[in-house]
Amino acid sequence: MKNQSVLKNITIGFLLLLTFILIATSTGCSNQEKQTALILYNENDPFINTFARQIEELISDIPNCQLETIDSQNSQIIQNEQIEEMAARKRDLLIINPVDRLGSYSIVKKMKDQKIPIIFFNREPLIEDLNIWDKAYYVGARAEQSGQLQAELIMGLFGSDPGQLNQYDRNGDTSIQVVILKGEQGHQDAEIRTAEVVRAFRERGFKLEILITEVANWNQEQAFEKMEHILKTYGSRMEVLLSNNDAMAIGALERMRQEDFFHDTNGNGRIDPLDEDWLPVVGIDGLAEAVKEIESGYLYGTVLNDSLTQAKAIVELSEYILGMRDLDGMNFTIIDNNYIWIDYKVFTLD
Amino acid sequence: MRNLSIRQNILIAILGIVFSILLVTGIIFYTTFSKRTDTLVESQSREINKQIVLNYESYINSVIETANYIQYASLNLDVNSSAFELQNIYLINSEIKRDVVSIFLFNSQGIQILGDPVSNSRKDGISHESWFTSALAENSIFHFSADNSRSISADSEEQVISVSRAVSYTDTGENKNGVILIELNFRTITDLAEKTNLGPGGHILILDDEDSLIYSSGTYDQIRSRESIQIAVQNYFGGFPAEIDAKVMHMNITPLSQTRWRIVTVNDVDEVAQAKRRMLLTLVLIFIVSGLVASAAAVAISRRISNPMKLLRESMANIEKGDFYSKVSISGQREVVQLASSFNSMIDTIRSLMEKVVEEQRDKRKTELRALQNQINPHFLYNTLDSIVWLAENNRTDDVITTVVALAKFFRISISRGETFIPVSDELSHIRNYLTIQQIRYQEKFSYVFEIDEGIYEYMVMKLILQPLVENAIYHGIGDEQEKITIRGYKENNLLVFEVENTGYGVTEERISEMYKILNGTHEVNSVGIRNVYQRLKLYYGVEGNVIITSKLDEMTNIKLVIPIEIPAELPADLKDNA
């Protein structure tokens, strides 16, 4: 009997020790705070960077909500690992800017399995993928709208009448000679923006002569490089430069300035559309640098991919998903169960 | 705990400590080890998977680059005016790239515009081919399909992967929509997969977005791949351990960018699991061996401690039995030796105390004995002197002389130069003197006779032992009739027996038992004579000395004295010296 009680004591002591070790090694954190993660395809993308800072700032205003920002370094494999880890850590919500929009279906399936809501942004997953789960959302702008707005900007400049183009039709052939700087070939946005801007002109009856569609992969340097050849070949005939994004437009402007394109011919002390050799260059995105170019008169305008409004929509949607906000209390409308669409905005000096 | 021996306590304590330390370190060691290996296995198989996926991705990217280039060319060149140039681009691309079987451009109705010749049998069904319909349905992406396994080219029957996408092309200055198709050699995919070593049971699976198997690698049976497909389908993407075909595997699922396919790599990590099992086995072995060693050590230590204690305990048991002269001698631990020497000195003290007590007791007894011996004399002396006075008053001079002489002899023997033991002859003459005196005093109211074996005269006997009996016989025997006192002495075995028998009324049994009580001192009585005898007898001779009283009513009373022949060794010798 005595022996047994000794053994019992030893056993109990052991169990206590083991429990202690187990407790000490496991992270016993169970607070009421909502844990969310923001996963970016590439933090080095200035637009995404700005976008992320806006989301972070807005979420920091929400009480009891933690946000962790993660950079996927432009690799879907890395991003998948990060999502896996976040899922394992039982995050309450994942805000994902996918690297590969086609890979979203497996993310949606897995998160549906783990019951973790997701908000995609900036890269739109396929409808069929988003429809897999009603807690998978997309917040973004319609890519086609950006092309349309770009076209409208130019059409306005040219007098809005396809039959009677104003002085910006330099050779007076009632047709607009354009050079298009395209984003990554095959990239959804690049394809859509390019197609839509052209379609919008033609829809309104404007005659368009595409001198060249050059792929510069969204990249400022590539645009700068490729513009050398383009200017040599088409520089004299070019009437409009349409760029799929601001970065490429800025690269092009750099090359154009280098090739002696813009002059203050009317001597008003600044570059503006009234100068004789002024050429309209338009971008998309509304980068801070682009705004500077617009203010200095070189860039005619840009179509603002309104990241601030998108960030607001993402944060409101997050609040809704986390049960902190009613559907009625939202300033944005969820369309087709999974979407919040944010309009592009035209940004010019006016 | 109270009832356990030292040995058990030490054993439990040592084993408890050893086993708890072993168990805790073992558990910590094993968990750390297995965590480490798990992490290692996971990161390794992830790395392998990543490498495979990167290989595929770079391949896919090159395919897409080709497709983009062709698409870009189609957009900038007019299919009508620059037909030859474009056709060249198509053909050269399908020619140069070994993995590209053929490249085609179809218009939105499925009629071929550019590219390799289409086999006649397939020509009319293009618009119903799955790659064609899906390309038109979702026009923003490339569609990778492995369903339609045979090339549509007229020149080839190869198994192909169809890469299709809706494109816009320029036909006579007009933008038109069509579908571009690039057929890839299926073998390319196989080659990419087979380069990797995934262990004996490892394999690669490629699943499409509908979870159907596009490709599986390696030599393995169908069941296993079906098993791994099932696990892959349930887990979408990520890395995790999985048991396939009763073997420990590590599965990694990664979506392949652009394609909506998923690459599943299954690594055989059974060897690692076995290593873990071996480690566990080794640990258990260590546990058992060190447990045994610890037990042996514990037993040895506890023996070393408890054995001297046991010896000590045995020595103590000896002493408990009364042997105060043995010493405890123990070598071993200092504490036990100290304990033993303390014990020894304690026993020494006890012994000397005991001896002191014994001595004191002896002294006390000596004093008592002397007092008992002396008690006899005053009574008798008083009475004798009385009778001498009476004789003198009656002018019986001869009797006075006889009495005084007898009295003198009586006392000489009584004193006997201080000896306690005297020869039987002396004792008998002592009684004769006494009887002489008493006969004169009682005017011959009794007669006496001695029946003594001559052989006993030389034996030593405690002095003045018979006189009280004779005195008693005289007092109790004197009545109306002439009384006769017989004094017998003889040897019986190793005993001397003296009998003093007197005729008379005798005594009843009750009286006899009363007398025994008096002898034992349980009854207070005035006459102390026989009791003195009895007590002295017991003091000197112990159990061997005895007084037996017998009686026949109206006939006689007999008091028998039984004494050992040998003079008691110790005590009387002492007394002899000091008396």
Proportion of helical residues of chain B: 40-55%
Number of helices of chain A: 11
The most extensive interface between chains reads: A-B, 36 and 45 residues
The average pLDDT value of chain B, as a whole number, equals 82
* Classification by helices and strands of chain B: alpha+beta
Unreliable sequence segments of chain B: 571-579
Radius of gyration of chain A: 27 Å
Strands of chain A, count: 12
What is the radius of gyration of chain B computed over CA atoms, rounded to a whole number of angstroms?
67 Å
DSSP strand count of chain B = 17
Strand content of chain B is 15-25%
**How far apart, in Å, are the first and last alpha carbons of chain A?**
96 Å
- Label the overall shape of chain A: elongated
Number of domains of chain A: 2
Shape of chain B: rod-shaped
Oligomer: heterodimer
The first-level CATH class of the domain at 362-578 in chain B is given as: Alpha Beta
Q: In the CATH hierarchy, what is the architecture of the largest domain in chain A at level 2?
A: 3-Layer(aba) Sandwich
Q: Please state the structural category of chain A.
A: alpha/beta
At the fold tier of CATH, the topology name of the largest domain in chain A is Rossmann fold
Trace the largest sheet of chain A across and list its strands.
Answer: 2-1-3-4-5-11
